[in-house]
Design a protein that fits this description.
This protein is mainly alpha-helical and 328 residues long. It has helices spanning 2-14, 21-36, 43-70, 78-103, 108-133, 142-172, 177-236, 248-269, 286-301, 307-321. Helix 8 (248-269) packs antiparallel against helix 9.
């Protein structure tokens, strides 16, 4: 985690113009206020208004390159970069509203605008996340799937709760300031709880999947050892070839491996970011699960052909290992 933060700091130093976007927009906003107060013909007003916008737009290419660089080569997906860029611009706008709220200069129009934007984010973000995440090769980008999708769900939940808080602030902050503040703070606590539950769900799923996949791999290895011993004994006894019937121990090992796969399959079908399947993303897509099931069952029937299934299971295991949390 510390190394990741240091890496982001080094990247940010190379793309320092990104830090100018918010101050530039705030300067432009100040110029707009001067324009509304009757200083429309003042050259200072025009310089602040248009100069801030020009600087902000000039820094957008740096923001795009920054997003591309902090996304590792394994995780690169052009749609994700553009979607994150749009989200960054929206968050910058909302940050300006938050700053004005803290300074006491926000009006009802600002709160209504923020509430509309936040509600749109709440509706659009899960839909866009499902569309983008299902376009990436899963096994190569599973790490991104388990990191980016829950973060987007948490952001959507925060946006929806914040939209209600912004509506209450815009509607009742002047007539009933104390109850409006209390309601807004309560909603912010609810947003924090929502984020915690969403991320904890992912950690729980990864922990359980790691345990179940480990058990499946061990059962497959025991099955392979059992069949290898049986073949060795059958070749050594009168050299009569393999036995006509599979020994009872091997059958039990096969059934144990099948039961382990059934449990793993349930894990892979579980949604990552929410318990509501229609608006959530599964651990793996259906076609990926079907392909993996075919590979695993073939490996159980013939342990000599288990390399492909074992490689896929080890890839999933490695990603889940990064998010193990037995106390989640």
């Amino acid at each position: 985690m510390v190394l990741r933060i240091l890496q982001l700091i080094r990247v940010a130093r190379r793309h320092w113009p990104v830090l100018l976007i918010i101050p530039a927009l705030m300067i432009s906003e100040y110029g707009n206020k001067r324009h509304n107060r009757g200083y429309a013909d003042d050259w200072t007003t025009r310089a602040l208004l248009f100069g801030g916008l020009i600087v902000a737009f000039a820094c957008l290419p740096f923001l795009k390159r920054f997003i591309q660089e902090v996304t590792s080569s394994e995780q690169k997906n052009e749609r994700i970069v553009w979607f994150t860029l749009i989200q960054s611009l929206i968050l910058i706008s909302l940050t300006l509203t938050a700053v004005k709220s803290l300074l006491g200069t926000a009006d009802q129009a600002s709160y209504r605008s923020a509430a509309s934007i936040l509600m749109a984010m709440y509706v659009i973000t899960p839909i866009a996340t499902l569309w983008i995440a299902n376009t990436a090769p899963t096994f190569r980008q599973l790490r991104l799937r388990l990191m980016w999708v829950p973060a987007q769900r948490a952001m959507a939940n925060v946006a929806g709760i914040s939209a209600v808080a912004a509506f209450i602030a815009g509607r009742f902050s002047e007539s009933h300031p104390a109850p409006a503040l209390s309601a807004a703070l309560t909603l912010l606590v609810a947003a924090a709880v929502s984020v915690h539950k969403t991320l904890a769900r992912t950690r729980k799923l990864c922990t359980q999947s790691h345990l179940d996949i480990q058990k499946l791999i061990r059962d497959m290895e025991e099955l392979h050892e059992t069949q290898t011993r049986n073949q060795t004994r059958s070749r050594g006894k009168w050299r009569a070839g393999p036995p006509k019937k599979t020994p009872e121990v091997a059958i039990e090992k096969q059934m144990a491996a099948r039961r382990s796969w059934d449990i793993v399959k349930l894990d892979l079908k579980t949604t990552v970011d929410s318990g509501y399947g229609t608006i959530a993303l599964r651990f793996l897509p259906e076609d990926e699960i079907a392909a993996l099931e075919s590979s695993v069952l073939a490996a159980i029937a013939d342990p000599e052909a288990a390399d492909s299934a074992r490689d896929d299971l080890q890839a999933i295991l490695a990603v889940c290992a990064e998010r193990i949390d037995v106390l989640a």
